[in-house]
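Progress note, project year one: complex with 2-acetamido-2-deoxy-beta-D-glucopyranose.
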Amino acid sequence: MVKMLLHSLLLLLLLDRKRNRVEGEQVGINYGRIADNLPSPSRVAKLLESIGITKVKLYDADPTVLTAFANTNVEFIAAIDNGKSIKPYLPATRITCVTVGNEILGGSQASLSANLLPAMQSVYQALVSFGLSDQVNVTTAHSLNILGSSYPPSSGAFSSDVARYIKPILNFHSKVKSPFFINAYPYFAYKADPVTVKLPYVLFEKNAGVVDSGSNLKYNNMLYAQIDSVYYAIKAMGHGDVDVRISETGWPSKGDSDEPGATPENAGKTGSTMGI
Ligand SMILES: *[C@@H]1O[C@H](CO)[C@@H](O)[C@H](O)[C@H]1NC(C)=O
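Model obtained:
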């Protein structure tokens, strides 16, 4: 088990597929609150302000956090299970997006798969009833495990067991114009095959790159290749109209003996690539 993700980053990236580079890059942080000795939310607010971070993703909708960030520039993505829970904090706290469920499809919570879209729809309906649906996007965050095929990226496809849930979710995103969130960790691909997967390719260092034989696009790092495979999978379902955002990425600073490459140095390299 990865013990610590030192740089768990929220990246709001738009990938320019033709030029294979990132556009409109905005970096934020994932504010995880399951740990000892956490600084108080008001200290975190000051800290983030001092390092110029203006985007934060929460794994909850904690009142002390949302209150501490009232009347600041910080934009929030909050995790909720009903539309009411964020209403008291708006508009003083800038909550621009809510996630309903984290990595429900294709993982240990797959038994909830059929409930995911109805939960998203009910949060959306609540926001509509409060007149907030234009200010707050409704989405869910997926893990890369939802892909059955990701290499090369142009062969990207959802796995057959999640496809029937993904299709109506994509229709929802398209209809309400909200983005598709993916948690993408090149680290896990490296861990699974540290011989074939070259470290510079996953750490954004100079490397020969990998050419996708289907599209002839050359990828200089695995993160972009992973995101493109999600775009291709979405396109294969008939949706060229849904934005993909990286809701989490990062590199562990520490791991077990079967977790090569999990070092503070490598975590720092990933962090500085992202501008943190
Ligand atoms: C909601 O998501 C859409 C699609 O990615 C984006 O264009 C829009 O700016 C987002 N709205 C807010 C309030 O962030």
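The first strand starts at residue 4 and ends at 5.
Confidence is low (pLDDT under 50) at residues 1-22.
No further modelling is planned for this target in the current period.
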